[in-house]
Amino acid sequence: xNYDHIVSHLRxxxxxxxxxxxxxxxxLIVGVETSQGQIELIHxxxxxxxxxxxxxxxxxxxxxxxxxxFPPPIDSGNLCSICVGDSDSVSVNYDAPPLAFxxxxxxxxxxxxxxxxxxxxxxxxxxxxxxxxxxxxxPISKKAxxxxxxxxxxxxxxxxxxxxxxxxxxxxxxxxxxxxAELPESSSIASINCIKSRAKLGTGFVLPLKDLQPCPRxxxxxxxxxxxxxxxxxxPKRAIHVxxxxxxxxxxxxxxxxxxxxxxxxxxxxxxxxxxxxxxxxHDLDGWKVEPIADWGLSRTxxxxxxxxxxxxxxxNMAEDTRSDxxxxx
Length: 330
What we know:
Number of strands: 17
Radius of gyration: 23 Å
Strand content: 25-35%
Structural class: alpha+beta
Mean pLDDT: 81
Number of domains: 2
Number of helices: 6
Region (Disordered): 307-330
């Protein structure tokens, strides 16, 4: 792909465009003057056009809380990826790369400007993409959590992954509620309802939320975010009086696109039974390890034996990423 032609075309449109080196990789940098100040877009050059030309933006403090803008784990710099659609939903002019880049730059700038100028729209979009953002901060090596629940407060017994089994359902933690045993054999959870090959590890709770704030952007922010969120969503007293070695909290809340499910795992550094923390301040979690977990909701109703999985997140590195399709983050 001839990037010299692309640079010339973008310059003819009054963009500041140039080719540069970024940690040994050729990149296209496009500077754009907007009503919100200058935005500098960075594209990792590729040999051919295989989708929407993707751009990163170097965060200067304005972009980290914007919808559809994601901070990928890049060692050098503070680059955020941007999702403006994918090749299945957006027309791409493969025969004229300069025009494809012109369209992509406009889409990226329009998205960023709208998110900066309209806080209400930005918050609603952040809530719509909560599941994708949550899965982004979940540890890749962390086992997912499976439970069958309808949404109201419920207590669960939590069991380990099945010993010696690798089937997707058998290889994850499972939370069984009193109502789980009543599910029909046609339910998705019926085939994994047997706990003979599992060890009981702790206690879980299904906790409905009245108010949900956008997902934290980094795993390190999870404790402060959790405390702030629970200020408007008090834990039931029957939950905070329970003692165990580990706890799984599975939350659900209404968002503009429906209901979202997600969870956190709490484990104290000393392997003894303790009461579930009050979660009123960050000091309540001193000595506790708190990690976000992906929740796989099975059979939310007895007559609907389907599975619903949290969507995966884009975990790309610009130095390694040669894809132009950012749609996987939607």
